Amino acid sequence: MSDERNFSGGGEGGGGDRRFFAKPKFCQFCADKQLIVEYKKLDLLRKYITEDGKIRPRRQTGACAKHQRVVAAAIKQARHVALLPFSGRSLDDTRS
Length: 96
Prior knowledge:
Blueprint: E1 6-7, E2 20-21, H1 28-31, H2 42-45, H3 58-61, H4 65-80, H5 91-95
Antiparallel strand pairs: 1-2
């Protein structure tokens, strides 16, 4: 995550004004109008899920509010149909 942060000021003397400048993010769905969110597109939806199976927040994904809601609904639908797990643990992890 250190590659996403830029600190200005400071220097070697210390006591400078440190401000966080996040890398500008853009909604890939707004940029590419051809891209459609569906519960069947698992390769796309996996980008929006953590290793634990949780839905990533907007500040991490860069999606706009409208498309983040659509992605969250598609993930929940894919979970309901058993295409995605509810948790990050698979069946192999629970047996050992």
